[in-house]
Design brief:
Layout lengths: L1 H27 L2 E9 L4 E3 L5 E2 L2 E8 L12 E12 L10 E9 L4 E5 L2 E3 L1 H4 L4 H7 L10 E13 L4 E3 L3 E8 L1
Parallel strand pairs: 2-11
Antiparallel strand pairs: 1-4, 3-8, 4-7, 5-6, 5-9, 9-10, 9-11
C-alpha cells in the first residue's frame, strides 16, 4: 500500500504535463506557413550589380483543418528566412547559404507580403564561385561565363503560443553573369 502512495504524486505530475502539451497542440498544431506567390523573379543577375532582390513574395498562414476553430494564438510571427543555392551545371562550388532576420506577422488564414527580399548579398557575390565571374570573367571550375543556380527559400517563424513553424521550400532558377 505504501508503494502505491509513493508513486501517486509522480503519476499526477506526468498526467498534468501531458494535459498541458495536448492543449497547446489543439491551439496551434494545425497551422501551416506557405509561400503563395512570387512577383518579379529575375531570370539573370550580374555580380557587378550588387545585392539582388525579389520584387515581392506572399506568405500565407493556413489552418490544416478548415472546419476547426482558429484563434490569435495561431498567428505566426516571422523571424527569418534562409536562401540555399544549388548548381544547375557541372560545377560543385556553391555560394554560402544566406540567413536573414525578417520581421512580420501572418494572421491565421491570412497573407502577408514582403517586398525586396535579398537573395544574393555581397558575401555571396564576392566569394567563389560567383567572384570568379567578376575577377576572371568565367567560372574557374567550369570555364563558363554563366553560373546557373537554383535559389531555394524557406521562412521561419513561431506561433504566438510558442510553436516553431517552417514554411515549405520554394525554388526558382537564375543565371549569374559577370
Amino acid at each position: 500500500m505504501t508503494i502505491k502512495l509513493r508513486f501517486a504524486p509522480l503519476a499526477l505530475l506526468v498526467l498534468a504535463g501531458l494535459s498541458c502539451s495536448s492543449r497547446v497542440e489543439r491551439t496551434d498544431g494545425t497551422v501551416l506557413l506557405t509561400v503563395s506567390t512570387f512577383d518579379q523573379l529575375p531570370v539573370s543577375v550580374s555580380v557587378a550589380n550588387g545585392p539582388t532582390q525579389l520584387g515581392s513574395i506572399t506568405l500565407r498562414s493556413v489552418n490544416k483543418d478548415p472546419s476547426g476553430t482558429t484563434g490569435t494564438l495561431q498567428d505566426i510571427q516571422i523571424r527569418s528566412y534562409e536562401v540555399r543555392y544549388a548548381r544547375r551545371d557541372t560545377g560543385t562550388r556553391l555560394p554560402q547559404p544566406l540567413v536573414e532576420s525578417l520581421f512580420g506577422n501572418v494572421a491565421v488564414n491570412s497573407t502577408t507580403v514582403f517586398n525586396n527580399l535579398v537573395f544574393l548579398r555581397t558575401a555571396q557575390l564576392t566569394s567563389p564561385p560567383l567572384s570568379d565571374l567578376a575577377n576572371f570573367g568565367t567560372d574557374q571550375q567550369t570555364g563558363s561565363r554563366i553560373i546557373p543556380l537554383r535559389i531555394t527559400l524557406r521562412f521561419f517563424g513561431r506561433t504566438l503560443s510558442g510553436t516553431d513553424i517552417v514554411s515549405d521550400s520554394v525554388s526558382f532558377d537564375v543565371e549569374v553573369v559577370p
